[in-house]
Amino acid sequence: MSAIGPLHDLRVLELGQLIAGPFCGQLLGDLGAEVIKVEAPGRGDPMRDWGQGVPVWWSVIARNKKSITLDLRQSAGQALLLKLVAQADVLIENFRPGTMEKWQLGYEQLAAVNPGLIMVRVSGFGQTGPYAQRAGYGSIGEAMGGIRNLAGDPDRPPSRVGLSIGDSLAATFACVGTLAALHSRERSGRGQIVDSAIYEAVLAMMESTIPEFTVGGVIRERSGAILPKIAPSNVYPTAEGEMIVMGANQDSVFARLCDAMQQPQLSSDARFESHSARGEHQQLLDEMIADWSKGFDADSLLALLERHGVPAGRIYRAPDMLSDPQFQARQAIVKVADETFPDLQMQNVVPKLSDTPGAIRWSGPGLGEHNQEVYKELLNLSDDELAGFTRDGII
Known about the structure:
Strand content: 5-15%
Radius of gyration: 25 Å
CATH topology of the largest domain: Rossmann fold
Number of domains: 2
């Protein structure tokens, strides 16, 4: 547990559960912050049981964190948390708005013991507005933020990405807000609230969909594997049936694709000579490229496109990532020591910093694994006090 990463001098208290708050804590911990995760005694975060087939998600989202147990519904537990807050830089919570206030742990109470505290609040709809008190899962934020309407094929109901993208986006923006608030504190000495709403985090990623409507009356709809009017950029078949992704919509790149196809005249064809022209003839162009790409196996096609400087790649799953030399060279996936899962591998810290890189120091901890360390060393509780709190179900 050495001090690794640019945030190694920061202490973060992580409350809440599941993804929207804890992923923010993971990002801060990856960059070196001391993250103390507060879990309910006896139960812990439900993420401990999540994962497709094997409950390994906890190992990722709780990596680099210390786990303590504390019942925040009891006044004695709230008092202990305030003692921890006095020694913290950041507190993350993703309960339904009003929960912290119900526990007498709102920002006013926290700031009273630590005026420099950054309180990070992640929720479905934010801390204000008529929807603030609603329960808001990531899927609802994805729907109302707009991404669900654009995901999938136009002849089918809206799909989902296959990941909890709304929660993760809200957590990522919460992390950005945390770093900005910490920078502001360097000048003012004061903390503040970072209010990250899932639907707004999704909305922030919606490119030009709003002005497309307000200026041009256009409502962008589902388009499957393509972006309308952006061509060629699609998935294309190969001789053995494998699909590859190719993007050659920029003029110079399209000219290189035409050379690879041994049809250089296409780049000066009036139907394809400009970005807008290719967009108008997108379906025809995709059909022409697909007819050509089917004449190659995937390896040969990718090698040919690489020689001509045309961006292309396979559609990867986990086994492909593990065997890819680029992933290996940059250690994008690393093996992490874990007593429960001896072959535990996971995605590495992003982004890479040249002088103060982050690192995965340990995987998700056991429930209350760091109670002794935190309560005895940080709060100077005696063995008798610890025993009493444990007996009363507070810790």
